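Cont'd.
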Amino acid sequence: MKPRLYLALIIIPLGLILAAVPANTTHPYKLSPQDLLEHVNSGMQYFSPDEVAHMLVSKDPSLVLIDVRSEDEYEKFHLPGAINIPLSSMLEDQWKDYINQDLRYNVFYSNGTVNSNQAWMLTRQLGYQNNYVLQGGLNYWVETIINPTAPPSTSPDEEIAKYDFRKGAGQALGGGAVVESSTQPAPALPKIAPRPKKKRVEGGC
Amino acid sequence: MGPLIINDIISQNTNFFLAFIIGIGFGFVLESSGFSSSRKLAGMFYGYDTVVLKVFFTAALVAMVGLLFMSLFNWIDLDMVYINPTYLWSTIIGGAIMGAGFITGGFCPGTSFCAASIGKIDAIFFIGGMFLGIVIFAEAYPLLEPLYKGSFKGTPTLPQALGLKDGVVVLGIIIVALGMFWVGEWAEKKFPREEY
């Protein structure tokens, strides 16, 4: 028999099998429970309110605040410049370019930290990088940045400096009184062009 | 689990080492199956020897079938596999230049190194020409850039373009390829050459 016939006898049945079975659409990328536990324990996913306030005050363009609460809640109050991606619609295609990117720091926040942590878990499972959680959520934000409590005057200098910063930042970011948001809903960010997947294996003749 | 490098199963250095071994194997097989003969390669264009078509298409078929089966067994995530992006104009013009060089020089870039390694002088000149071409392209890049990056199409694939399942397209390509092999062997009988 000619080699061509051998080839045909082997490869045509294989092709028939491939044509018959459903395509595999699962993504084998899975975060192992061990890895996830390590991340959670280390608290690496948290941005403290002070860090976020500092980035907001210095107008750091690498910060993207993402409000994962519902649209109603977002419209009542949201942090300056935040965009709204409700947790329930997080997996829709329109948000993919926001949560799967490697240019900026996405910081999720909700009232507490439950929903924002859920959003963070989702993005971790998907293998997306650069997503973080605002430590303590909006409640803690109000407590620390908007209405900071003065430390006792015997506190170390760092505590006092921290308080001063918080007071200043709180005023700059619309604190001091009960917050009535007058800010317009944040303009949508320019659409990030889908980047080519990094680190792919290249080849050629 | 795959691709191995992206999922940190092997390091970049191991990757280079494996690439080195595979490269040597590739060159060895090319040379031993006669790809260092420019007459054999040019035979593709005249129809007296279609081994180039058969070897490269068989490689493509094996890779295609292998990748899809590996994806089926969850051994590789096809979304992570690099797809060469399509720039339509550079593909058309580059393909024409490559084809012209192939038929006049009698080598494709890879096989020219194969032939040079066994000491063929025409292959050494071919490589010299290739470097000359690279220098000209690099120097003229500012002029050529709009053309080079013209009509970018992303990374289209046949199944996406046809709206078919990967497996169906693969079966189609297998049948078309086997048909081409048959035509190739018919051409070899039709335009025989005694020795080359």
